[in-house]
Amino acid sequence: MSLLVQNIIKSILGSKFFCPLLMVFMFCNLSLEASPIAIWPFTKEQATEAGLDPHFVYSIAFAESTLDPFADSGKARGVMQLKKIAWNTVTDIPYAYAWDWQTNIKVGIAYLNFCKQILIKEKRFSYPLLAASYRYGPTHLKKINYDIRKIDKPSNKIYQQLLAGKIRSIKGVVYPRFYSANWN
Question: How far apart are CA 153 and CA 160, in angstroms?
Fold first, then answer.
């Protein structure tokens, strides 16, 4: 961003708003390409490289934020709705990057793999338990002895399906018929 543009924004918004706004523009990829059509191939590539089912990861993202890169629950940010503690568990990248949808997905996948490794170590890995671990935290899951029946039924219908073992739960919800070829 040029100095002239920075000064124009600063004069319009004032100093109080300028620094956070500048940080967002300079450090985050805030392109308009964050759409289901762009997010799916990126998620598919990243999840496959990480050894996770891409449909599962995409379902988690859709359940968490409906793929909104600016989703903010007050506790979590971005497409994968990562809390700062989860973010810092798997990366040294500053939490401000949680607004960058591609970085958010990469870190979300890293956190899913972190949860997966805990489940594997405990000899409890399954995709329903991975979904529960991501949603409620691996510590909570351990407290209930990995008994998914002890988890309160989530209100989110996608999470209900994920916890029931349907890891491809959103096919057809996100993609209209004419995009179905992009699903595989």
Answer: 7
